[in-house]
Amino acid sequence: MTLAIAGSVAVIAYLLLAPLLVQLASSLRGPFLPLGIPGTSWSLGAYRQLATAGGLLATVRATAAYAGGATVVSVCLGWALAWLVVRTDIPGRNVVTALVIVPFAIPPIVRAQAYVLMLSPTSGVLNQVLRLMSFSRAASGPIDPFSFLSMTMVQGLSSVTFPFLLFMPVLRNMDGSLEEAARVSGATWARTLRKVTLPVLWPGTLSVIALSLMLMLGNLEIPLLFGQQSGRDILALRLWNLITPVGGQLPEYGVAAAYGVTFMAVVAGIFAIYLRATRHAARWATVTGKGFRPATLPLGRWRVAALALLIPFLILTAVLPVLALAWSAITPYPLPVTWFSLVHHTSLGAFHAVLADPQFWASLTRTVIIAGVSSTIATTVATIAAFAVARSRRRLPATALDILASSSLAIPAVIAGFSAFLFYLVINRWIPLSGTIWAMAIAYAYRLSVCYRTSHAAVLQIHAELDEAAAVSGAGRLTAFRRIVMPLLLPTAAAAWIQLFILGANEFTLAAFLSTPQSQPLSMYIYARINPESGQLYAPSQGAAMALIFTVMVVLASYGLNVAVQRRRAGPGTSGAGTAQASPKCSAPLRQKNRSRAASPNPASASPKISKGRRPPSGCG
Length: 621
Fold this sequence. Notes:
- By secondary structure, this protein is an all-alpha fold.
- It has 29 helices and no strands.
- Helix 4 packs parallel to helix 15.
- It is globular and about 80 Å long.
- The two termini are 22 Å apart.
């Protein structure tokens, strides 16, 4: 088990620290060439270029406005939606929840494409509806989809599901008696919200804000499709443009690395502020073992009004984007949504072309391999690390490993992708992985913190006396982990594996930095189909059809995997209390040793838990 833990630590360091260290070194090797390329010397030239050219200040301003604005939109809407669904009696709560989650099931590049089609100045369905409502005779508009404000709003609206899902358990676990007491004392609902609800939920809300901000900083899809002009100073797009220049210019790897290092320092500062602000979070705890009961606020005559406000949002985020994507898939070129166009210009030819495209199936196969390998690496390493931290008696090493395994939450995807790109470019002379699906599979595993946090919480719920019982029976730590702890952790690990698999299948930002035309996953192939600069690959109708097929596949895969996990949980060999069946190889020696210890005339030779007549813990004995 010691070797397994040491190997997990080495893999985590390889996944998280090695690329970042290479990025730091590359930022000090000149503005153009990264570490490992001969002919360069150590210098601060890249940082001087950032300071003198004025690009850093413009990038900070644009990124702060974009990520901050999108975070405000998504967090505010996510909080309001979660509050209405969890804490009020609004009608149709299950339907509202399902519709809010719909965008989360759509791959990010597909969501971005759907919003581009929905907001197209001439043929976009939303602009058409707005022109009809305002009785305007203009040929385009009124929304400019490529403005900075539109891009920020689209990013915020497309990301509402993430804070919504995080706020739901926070609101569900809040004791409603505090709000009832405030209302009994004469406080209005607004004063109750401001003085009671928001302060109690402040730690949870702050954590959601920090995580959402990290998500906005790392996304490349929306800036790439919407912001080539107005958003060129946003960090994700600036890094992309620096390493993929046009017009025969040299890639500025050193400058891009300097941007990455600078923003990583900013991210570290944000998380330091977050940790300091939530260090006294326990004082706001309201869930207790006595008298706890979540309350539902009756909306009364405001129920219909609240639902009426929700309907436009749900149509805008869940209905119109899918409608725009479907319309683009059945039309040969951009056309307004009219009955005439539906009758005379629509066909299913794009779907037939996609299903007959060998490159589609090849990229889909690569996507499955990359997602499967990366999720398996991340889940295995994170589960072993979680067990090591939870069972360790050495506080300092356990804390260091806990911070390291959790650190990917603070690394935006765009920085992780660029760092991995530099890392595999540097080591390619010795380990030729650059541009292969295996480099992507390893890089995707950097999100192991998702699995580590859930596995760590699950290990803490498994009492250490199971390990002690296994030790009494003569089993080593590895045997105890493999035969006792791992069966109990399997449902949690399987759920985390599914989540990471879906994230890997949908991944675009990391693939944009690491893939080549020969190794591109399906998300990159879809982008090539909808990008006008792709030359002969450009086919927007096939790109839309491919996006719909891909979305259906992702949803079906997610549903099938979740059903399999649920059946595994409910199958034979598990109990409702979450305990594991005893392994014959473990239980028989333990029972024999217990009988011999019970017959021993020396009480001190017996285990204290057995000498008192207690039954050995379930799972071993």
